[in-house]
Amino acid sequence: MFCVDAIQSLGALPFDLNECHADFVMADGHKWMLGAEGLALFWVNPEIRERLKLYQYGWHMTREASDFDAPSWHPADNAKRFECGSPNMLGAHVLDASLSLLQEIGMETVSAAVLERSEFLIERIQGSPTLELLSDPTPQRRSGIVTFSHRQIEPTQLHQQLMQQRVICACRGGGVRFSAHFYNDLDHIEQAVLRAEQLK
Amino acid sequence: MFCVDAIQSLGALPFDLNECHADFVMADGHKWMLGAEGLALFWVNPEIRERLKLYQYGWHMTREASDFDAPSWHPADNAKRFECGSPNMLGAHVLDASLSLLQEIGMETVSAAVLERSEFLIERIQGSPTLELLSDPTPQRRSGIVTFSHRQIEPTQLHQQLMQQRVICACRGGGVRFSAHFYNDLDHIEQAVLRAEQLK
Q1: How far is CA A6 from CA A9, A16, B44, B196, in A?
Q2: Does CATH place domain A3-105 in 3.40.640.10?
Q3: Does A28 reach chain B within 8 Å, measured CB to CB?
Q4: Fold of the CATH domain A107-198
Q5: Do B171 and A28 make contact, defined as CB atoms within 8 angstroms?
Q6: What is d(CA A107, CA A13) in angstroms, rounded to the nearest whole number?
Q7: Cα A47 to the chain's mean position, in Å?
Q8: Where are the domains of chain A?
Q9: What is the pLDDT along chain B (200 residues), one digit of tens a residue?
Q10: In this complex, is the C-beta atom of B106 within 8 Å of any C-beta atom belonging to chain A?
Q11: B62: which strand partners?
Q12: A197, A121 in Cβ contact below 8 A?
């Protein structure tokens, strides 16, 4: 079975189920989809749905879900069978609002802005005397993530110092990861790179 | 192994882990604990912790949880091993606030108020010509839940008509369930019973 972890795509880049030929796709909602933590998306091809073994059981995942007098129970026939317990309702409302925002702006516009920002970062870091690009710059390999290191400063130090200067980033893959979304100003991204360059 | 489902106790009645001799205890947070849906409590006796087979895996449940360069991983030694993915942070803040409120008031006070309300309901319904008590009225069997039926009206009808009159209740166990918490006024509870009596 072919599983696609779409956590770094959904909300950043257009994603077409028909093109990826996945048996199932999942992505947590709190990254590019701008949701709150604790709610993810899961899609499963209806044809293989019953081949996925159930390990979680609860009152929501049954065919008889709101019939409290039912003498027996069965897993729901649709994908509700994978949603065992009471849903994270606050998280669902947050994700509904953030996905609506992304749809309103349009994923083509969002993804063009995300790729414009990573292209800006890639070129800016490639031309920097103190920073070193770690991400693959090949256009078809680009995403919203750009990872780089500093020639004099060790990655955990670099990350810590940037965070102290309120540059929100992550320490990953031997460097620091910048992940600019569509709403980040190019000016702010330039400021963040400048701060990284000026560290000692 | 002895599992205690404490969903109708925690937040309504005092609960002592040492007295119940459970191997594990769980309760959803959205009932008497006044949390939001999608976050539950789970306690497991540390001595049997490793005998519970793991079925859920994720980045949070490992010993190496925030070390992204770790070459291998192991389930956490503590109960974190059962918290696989990103936690429901909004739900955690809601539950933190509601449990703090219950602690501030004190569970002795809360539970005295809950039992006072169920005693009021039991006596009121026992003395009613149109309603019939279904809950066990024995003092040591009491909880926050009081279930009753109507001599002329079928339970689902009774439930529907009460909800239309904004009496929030549940249809369960061959009748309608009232679950008054510490903050429900006795006057309001009397009004709710009166409305049930006046239905036709």
Answers
A1: 5, 11, 34, 52
A2: yes
A3: yes
A4: Aspartate Aminotransferase, domain 1 (3.90.1150)
A5: no
A6: 7
A7: 26
A8: 3-105, 107-198
A9: 999 999 999 999 999 998 999 999 999 999 999 999 999 999 999 999 999 999 999 999 999 988 888 899 999 999 999 999 899 999 999 999 999 999 999 999 999 999 999 999 999 999 999 999 999 999 999 999 999 999 999 999 999 999 999 999 999 989 999 999 999 999 999 999 999 999 98
A10: no
A11: B75
A12: no
Tell me, what's the pLDDT at A155?
95
Residue type, position B188, single letter: H
Mind telling me how many Å the CA of B176 is from chain A's nearest CA?
12
d(CA A101, CA A88): 20
Give dist(CA A162, CA B195) in Å, integer.
63
Asked whether this chain's domains B3-105 and B107-198 adopt the same fold, the reply is no
With a cut of 90, say whether residue A82 has pLDDT above it. Answer: yes
Structure tokens at B147: 């279930």
Beta-sheet strands, E only, within chain A: 3-5, 24-28, 40-44, 131-133, 145-150, 170-172, 175-179
Test mutation, B3, B31, B37, B149, chain A, max A CBs within 10 A: B37
- Higher-scoring residue by pLDDT: A84, A120: A120
- Encode A93-117: b = buried (16+ Cβ within 10 Å), e = exposed: ebbeebbeebeeeebeebbebbbeb
CB A150 within 8 A of CB A130: yes
Say what the pLDDT of residue B184 is: 97
* Degrees, nearest 5: CA angle A88-A91-A93: 110
Residue A168 C-alpha, separation from nearest chain B C-alpha, in angstroms: 17
Residue type, B143: S
Strand extents, DSSP E, chain B: 3-5, 24-28, 40-44, 131-133, 145-150, 170-172, 175-179
